[in-house]
């Protein structure tokens, strides 16, 4: 085995579900004899935002304030690891990248966990906590003043948002319009979808299926406050005072451009959301960059893998594979001779999407669940499970464990 205590620089870009899991596992290695290993976490945001809790943050200002955790508290005090608050501009070559603040950063291994953006404010786009809170607050005030709310998109996010809005503001008319013939992702059972329709109905949400709302070209990627009449392709008009888009998703891969020019091949898919191509080991799909891993929403694994908990699992797989390469001395030989390093690289673990599970709160009291092949849609057991496990704080408590530097977490 190669010398564990040698200097190794690992850069993780993006500190959300995938990146945080990878960075934490890799930083922990420095307590296990890998004394020269340094993890640098880079994020354009100063704070991690718990996107999973957005439906609750939208209607509960106190919770929203708690859902932002400062990256300055991510690494324990007194370690060699560091957080840089900047945006990745470009990956220059297999060992260097450039940040928007002008810094050039060297890496032996790179984890690209830059995810994707759903239309903001659903996926808070602000880069500071104050601006992020203001973004959510503006929508919350709009909801308070509205008589009617239109939610577009009946995946899990649209169902949760419509449910929390309707349960919090029972006097308002809430309509959920979905282009599919059933709610929720298609890999889940009919029982989950039917249960969601029934439970949304219980709290007064009108669910419209098989309908595509035509969005004006200037609609942008955002929720809108202000009266609008949108039309469905069926010809039906949907007047509302607030419109929330829970559809659309875009991946940024512009920073790969120098690598794409060098290799003369596209490392991302041009169509659709623009996913970054990966191998089952989560390495970038190129023989030239075996030291770059892309876990989480940014990669081109199937849409059924686009969940926070799966992003987190992929972050773990990427970290475990990097450890295997470190143990085999891959970074040393890769710097000397790329071809022979690749020829002698150890076999790496492959990520496989084995868990099909979903837990969707519909307001604080109701919800639907599927675990493996068992769908608990319309049942009271589903309500009980969702209340016990998710609706109270959307599992924010689990995320707090990632931010051990308590002194800095409190009050920020
Ligand atoms: C409202 C909502 C509710 C959801 N509910 C659930 C749920 O209940 N359960 C579930 O499992 N999943 C849920 N999801 C999906 C889940 O949030 C995503 O699958 C998850 O966020 C993906 O994690 P990620 O780490 O891959 O990327 P992201 O969460 O997208 O994070 C990417 C990170 O990279 C940073 N970044 C991006 N580009 C750059 C750059 N160029 N330079 C520096 N930093 C950069 C961003 O600031 C961000 O911190 C929900 C999503 C939404 C929007």
TrEMBL record:
One of its GO terms (cellular component) is cytoplasm. The keyword Flavoprotein applies. GO terms for molecular function: electron-transferring-flavoprotein dehydrogenase activity; flavin adenine dinucleotide binding. Keywords: FAD, Flavoprotein, Oxidoreductase. Residues 213-226 form the CRIB domain. Pfam families: Pyr_redox_2 (PF07992). Belongs to the FAD-dependent oxidoreductase family. This is CRIB domain-containing protein. It comes from Coemansia pectinata. The lineage of its organism: Eukaryota, Fungi, Fungi incertae sedis, Zoopagomycota, Kickxellomycotina.
